[in-house]
Fold this protein.
Amino acid sequence: MNPNETHQETPETTGRPAPARREMLRSGALLGGACLAAVLKGESASPNLAGRATPKRVEASDYIYTTCLQCNTGCEIKVKIQGGLAVKIDGNPYAPRTLDPHIDWQTPVDQAARLNGVICPKGQSGIQTAYDPYRVVKVLKRAGRRGEGKWTTISFDQAIREIVDGGALFPQDGGKPVTGMRELYALRDPKVHAAMAADVTNIQDKKMTVAEFKEKYKDNLDKLIDPEHPDFGPKNNQFVFNWGRLKAGRSEFFLRFVKDSFGSTNGHGHTTVCQGSIYFAGKSMSDQPSGGKWTGGSKAYWMADTSHAEFIIYWGANVMEGNYGPPLKVPKITRGLAGNKLRIAVIDPRHSKIAAKAWKWLPIKPGEDAAFALGMIRWIIENSRYDKRYLENCNKAAATADNEPTWCNAAWLVKVQPDGSAGAFLRASEIGLEGDADTFVCLRDGKPVAFKSDDAAKAAEGDLFVNTAVNNVKVKSGLQILLEEAQKRSISEWASLAGLSPNDVAALANEFTSHGKRAVVEIHRGVSQHTNGFYNVLATMGALNTLIGNLDWNGGLVYGGGSYGETGGTGRPFQVGAHPAKITPFGIDIIRGGASYEKSTIFAGYPAKRPWYPLASDVYQEVIPSAGDAYPYPIKALFLYMGSPVYALPAGHSLIPTLRDPDKIPLFVCSDIVIGETSQYADYIFPDLSYLERWEFHRTHPSIVHRVSPVRQPAIASPNETVSVYGRKMPVSMEAVFLALAERLQLPGFGPGGFGAAGDLARPEDFYLRMVANIAHGDSNTTSDVCPDASDEEVQAFLDARKHLPNSMFDPQVWAQTAGSDWWKKVIYVLNRGGRWWSYNEAWSGEQVKAKYGKLVNLYHEKPATTRNSMTGAYLSGAPTYLPIADSLGNQLEHRGAPFTLITSRHMLACKSRTISNYWLTDVMPQNHIEMSNFDAQRLGFRDNEEVWVLSASNPEAVWDLGNGQSKPLLGRLRVTDRIRNGVISFELGYGHWAYGASNQTIDGVTIPGDPRRGAGIHANAAMLVDPHLRSPLSDVVGGSAVFYDTRVYIVKA
Amino acid sequence: MASENENPALKPTPRRGFLQTLAGVGSGAVAAAVGWKVLQSQRAEAASIPPPLAESSGSVVLRMQQDLEVTLAGGKTPSWLMVVDTRKCIGCDACAVACRAENPTGPAGNFRRVIKKDLPIGPRPWAIYKPANCLQCDDPPCARAVPEDMILKRSDGIVEFDYDKLKGPSAQAAARACPFGAIHVDDGKTFTQSTPRPQDYELRPFVENGKTYSRKPGANPLQGAARKCTFCSHLLDVGVLPACVTTCVGGAMYFGDANNPGSLISEVTQGRRVFRGHQNLGVKPRVIYFEESMPDTPHIDCSACHS
């Protein structure tokens, strides 16, 4: 489409640029060039002040454009280099995340150099993450017991050799031999992997016995973890790679090693510590019918089109502190509020900064989100305020006829089980109509109509409220089931559960349904990090938005504009997935993600020893505890990358005994830039590059309606030691570790011919420059979207900007060769801007966003409805439902008189485990506080700024027991305020460190003193409940979320 | 169910336009609290809601950049003015940290800070955030407090300190004289000097008030000098906006040449209710604040506290 032709609406109706401004944006906008150059010849433009020192003229070569990683928003930034050092970070004006509206991608870099975008205080302080006095720059091997704080520096090559070869590596542990990576690289033939994987499926489906499997693979049984349980997979799976923050590029590189080359199924992310139940509820909402099953859903979620919404409910979403992008969202919000075009309601026990600008602040009781949502749902349905036309559409053809990009299953018929509960959808074939396993049924004027969801030709519209029998099969419609859930309690009862007034329910539901499709519920962790998180999400983000049919509409619920395909694809110059001998790993993974307990060879009734997560993956809080319980099998090696589960997880202290036990985790390797709260227990720490020294492709988030591909690229020299891998020099990094392991293990897929015929993979640039070239190629399968070549001036600016980088990080000849002559100048064009983005107007098309979700969104969820809870054996609900807060066995948590519910909050000056090194930030906020309401403080006799202990049923000592003879008290200062609900206390995350430069470490016999500034404040996660059955952090056993907000605590004067 | 619907609050209101829904809201948020004079929200009177700013039709930062380049290309002496829309400030301190990075300051102080206040108004809490830096007064009290050649009032409005002279007791006197607390005395220290590995980025040379300084041993010393905001004049010289202005997450900052009637800074100040600090002292500040409410927030009268 031509974006210039599609935006003829007046600014009054769209809020988009007026014609005059659009002209300016399109023309590149900046005066630049000769006009300004005349003024800026080096002499001061200041009046009457000749003969003074003036700063040098700002030029494109002063900057390297890269991507922030001070939080997971990943804002585009420009890093100013002076004297070879990063001295200032600004927002990148080319990017929608950091300027609204952003300038056109084609704007010459010498003009953009003077223009700075928006960036938050953490982004500004990123220099201090890189230039941290406590950076690890050489490989460390522990000299004492785990966690003792004693280290020896060893050579990179020695570390790689020991990790691969194993042996008696730690005399201080009694010299017990450690299994090396070579031994774990047991099953090496991709063909045998594939054959075994197929037969494991046959075992699960009862088509093959274990005995038959053992007979068939008798030559390879020694390569399995346990021949009696072939579904555990090969010994390769005993190598576990676990990560904290990992984005595209590095993700493909690392998992290429772990899965494609080494053949372990155990690569697990950290999703559930952030917002797992949002992702996996979103996956369930986006699952599509295929062959009688529900598959293909994306681990993704939706957010608001902030630019155009008239009413946004921020629900458990601290949008002015975090929540994927204050620089992205806040300018749109403040402009909308000040211009009287936007109204905000906030549902949060804590009066956040967005609450301070909101029409209504509803201080909900933590964990009662589904209750309030069901109250709203009841009001909306009973008052007929839902979008009937939208909900009646059962398939694509019906939706298309209404100009609706999406449709839902509100009118689809669901079979009612003998016990009255709702089960699977009715298939047409079950009532004698024609169709396959994906042909469903709705009623139209009482008559059954068979349809397929993605049928674009034959429209099906259905009756919304159905409770009847069809051919003697008892059925209800999806919306009927939702209404019945909502009618389980009165609106007053729902409001009362939520600790709010029924008038609040009505007021919000009324306002929410008064703006057509320009109203939206946007949620975040406050909704999901509960034991009932999955269903909270389905009720809020899912059902409420679906009821008004706002998906893909301007100002409604959007899926995001996505990113350019960096990894390859049709017509793209490089396929970075190309691999000469790729393994597809098999076996149940250590966290039992996406796995069925009932089909496994270790099914032993309910409850399971630990939960299975058939609907989730990347369950962070399960990795180390599962290793501790050796369930389903013991592991041999754990690699942890850029993660700190001990610090970041609720009840993270419960992981420490396992981490310290070499019998549970015989080899523990960390990649980190500082010795952190978790890496302090490692056997080896490899220094990583800081985010300003390395590559990555941060991609996007749902609320970014533009297509965006920010590139993270080396901007400054690394302090790390330089090593040699495959004969190439590079600073130590996670890539260097994997390359060196691959070299020693002689793994296919790395080194010379690593891409097969397509070339070598022997240094990071071999991978990442090819990905940049793919971005330069653009969206089209043909050459129609290929980016221009950088001009000679731009090429020179590119080279000049990188003069401070050592050859091991930037070698122009090697880079040019890697990109190839066809692509090198295009790669420079992308790198000079720090990525590639749609132009501003490209994001919307008429009244809808251009990048659409565009398919079935599930209001009723068949897969959960046909899946059992592995702990109770009961079927899960297929509809959004209200569940009380409960432990893993489904037992409601008892308060035992503890007066407060503990929650956390995000402050813009801190991001969990890594920003305490930023002295510019801690200067503004030297410590955090425990917030308590005035009412509670007066009632219980507490004073502002008073020091108090935080203790709970599972941590009555109020202490972080570090397991090394040291401890950190759960002691913090109160902030008495009106800005929190009575009965709730909160603390800002990111403080209260005991490692990460806060404590002494001894390296090669020299003690490096910790910095007390880095230990200030409280990190009260250790007060959060340990699950009484699992002895590990509390979880949502459906959506996988680690539970932060469901612990009752006592506050005691210090 | 039927009984619930007898509660009028639970009955739906007819769908209506946005402005209509504004009426009658906000009356609960009018109670005055000690120390804060609060006026009734004006939202019911649509006429009193200021019209959307011209900014709603484009990037504010881009517009200001264009204005700056027009001013510099025009060759005439500008009259710099900074305007803060406190309604949009979210108290994030991005400006304060940007300021520190751009104008290297040490632990002793910073040019920019953000004042944050909780406002106990009526049945629910509110909060207000106010960025503060040197107001570049046209009649600066700091200049009156020290000998004549130490502080220069430039023709473009910027109040410029001569760090080589404004040291010791004079620096203390200037800092004390500022009614806004916008001046600090640098002690020459760095944030990492007490750590195992002091960092070079803190020692970088930089231009301020026409001279080059650094915290490096042996360089032009900052220790004992009174320092404060310069409107980033070293950036203005080379066609770049002040650091706090561009980085502002809330979009609350405006900056430009008040002599240019076509500039955004002239546009946004026209016909608006603004607050100038310490008017009773007659200092004539060049940093001014919008004194307006948003439709859903209570109106706050700045002069109730700042008098």
Q: What stands out?
A: The first strand of chain A starts at residue 63 and ends at 67.
